[in-house]
């Protein structure tokens, strides 16, 4: 269930080479799985995934040095 799905999610993002990022993705995926099961829908996990991606992009945009 959750462990296999979360491992697959983290491995699909293998462009990130740092162990801490892998752990973050595993935990984030686990949270999405729990939210999916509790909400019995995909809308909330999708919104959380979008917010996570937006947060990462926002951080990259404002931390970039020239």
UniProtKB/TrEMBL annotation:
- What keywords appear on the UniProt entry? Hydrolase, Membrane, Metalloprotease, Protease, Transmembrane, Transmembrane helix
Designated name of the protein: CPBP family intramembrane metalloprotease
Q: Name one GO biological process term.
A: proteolysis
Native organism taxonomy: Bacteria, Pseudomonadati, Pseudomonadota, Gammaproteobacteria, Enterobacterales
Please name the GO terms that the record assigns under molecular function: endopeptidase activity; metallopeptidase activity
Q: Which residues form the CAAX prenyl protease 2/Lysostaphin resistance protein A-like domain?
A: 1-54
InterPro entries, alphabetically?
A: Rce1/LyrA-like_dom (IPR003675)
Question: Which residue spans traverse the membrane?
Answer: 16-35, 42-64
Is Hydrolase included in the keywords of this UniProt record? yes
Origin, by domain of life? Bacteria
One Pfam family named in its UniProt record: Rce1-like
């Amino acid at each position: 269930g959750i462990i296999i799905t979360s491992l697959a999610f983290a491995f699909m993002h293998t462009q990130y080479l740092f162990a801490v990022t892998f752990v973050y993705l595993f935990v984030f995926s686990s949270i999405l799985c729990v939210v999916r099961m509790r909400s019995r829908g995909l809308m909330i996990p999708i919104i959380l995934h979008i917010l996570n991606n937006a947060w990462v992009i926002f951080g990259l945009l404002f931390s970039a040095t020239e």
